[in-house]
Design a protein that fits this description.
This protein is mainly α. The chain is about 75% helix and about 0% strand. The protein is globular, with a radius of gyration of 22 Å. About 0% of the residues have low confidence.
């Protein structure tokens, strides 16, 4: 596990690990629980879907300025050499292209407005999109499945602006407590607004996807749900900062989950769906059994996350050694000819 001496902000890894746990619970809630367990099952799935992916996408943006400023200002690398490395996804590619603009304060406000505009335009276009995509199934499958770039790029864009403000403040030596205090206040205000609107919904079941922007049979948050999601993000991030950086609470198992989240994202789905649900028919009728199974699963993922980095290093070393031996052998054969 990387340490603070490596330059990593472990509280961000901890929050990413928490998001991974939300995602595991979302998938096991979908695939391991019988529907007759009713509304508790529904709310477990709905609660975790409103938090897991949004936190991941927000952290994509929030963490990007940290690596960018460290590379360009601390190590003196050129922007082009940094941007080429960001090939993980369209959000990271798009955000990387926008990073140089954030040196100007006006650009920060412009990108915040753009994030709001991306979401608002999707919400306004939602009725039309629902009808249009039924006539264009290929576009629906490619661009509007799971978490489409429109509107989810807005979460990453919000994260990159807030991450830039924090990273710049760190370089100036500003007090982090003021920054995270303001974020906590924003979180409380978002949650208060969510609660007020949630109670005013009327006969619609509370905390229910029926008021969200479901498109192409995939979930996207409605405006009220966005307040919930942002309220939780703006509350969890300062809380993790306070506990892990200010109070120095050690949560190594959560950090190691966050630092290996990409690998665990794929592996846990194979374990949960392909291996246990489809092959062995695992299905729980008791909340106690379900909870114990999830605890064992997360413990197994922690062990896997701990052994994965040294295994990956050894595997890469073996591959590089094999390539070098083959290259040397080819050069010797060439010289002999």
């Amino acid at each position: 596990m990387a340490t603070p001496a490596s330059g990593r902000q472990l509280f961000l890894d901890g929050l990413r690990g928490l998001a991974l746990i939300f995602m595991v619970l979302n998938h096991t809630g979908r695939w391991w629980i019988e529907r007759p367990l009713g509304w508790p099952r529904y709310h477990l799935v709905y609660l975790t879907v409103t938090l897991a992916a949004p936190i991941f996408l927000f952290l994509v943006g929030f963490c990007l300025p940290l690596s960018y400023l460290n590379s360009t200002l601390t190590r003196g690398e050129r922007y082009v050499s940094v941007a080429v490395l960001q090939t993980i996804g369209l959000s990271i590619v798009g955000l990387t292209l926008l990073l140089p603009l954030l040196r100007w304060r006006a650009a920060e406000w412009a990108l915040l407005a753009a994030a709001l505009g991306i979401y608002a335009s999707f919400a306004l276009a939602h009725p039309f999109l629902g009808r249009w995509l039924t006539r264009h199934p290929v576009v629906a499958d490619v661009w509007f499945s799971d978490f489409p770039l429109w509107p989810w790029f807005a979460f990453a864009l919000l994260g990159v602006v807030l991450g830039w403000v924090w990273a710049e403040g760190q370089r100036r030596g500003d007090d982090d407590r003021r920054y995270f205090g303001m974020m906590s206040l924003a979180g409380v205000l978002c949650l208060a607004a969510f609660l007020a609107l949630e109670l005013a919904v009327g006969s619609t079941p509370h905390f229910y996807s029926g008021r969200d922007l479901v498109l192409n049979k995939h979930w996207n948050p409605g405006p009220v749900t966005c307040l919930w999601t942002l309220g939780i993000i703006f509350s969890l991030l300062p809380a993790m900062y306070y506990l892990m950086k200010m109070r120095r609470v050690q949560v190594p198992w959560l950090v190691v989950l966050g630092q290996n989240a990409l690998m665990l994202y794929f592996v846990h789905q194979v374990i949960v769906l392909t291996f246990l649900r489809q092959r062995f028919g695992v299905l729980f009728h008791s909340w106690w059994a379900y909870g114990l199974a999830n605890a064992l699963l997360i413990a197994a993922l922690v062990v896997l996350a701990q052994v994965w980095p040294p295994f990956k290093r050894r595997a890469l070393a073996l591959v590089r050694g094999s390539v070098q031996r083959r290259t040397s052998a080819a050069e010797r054969r060439q010289e002999a000819l």
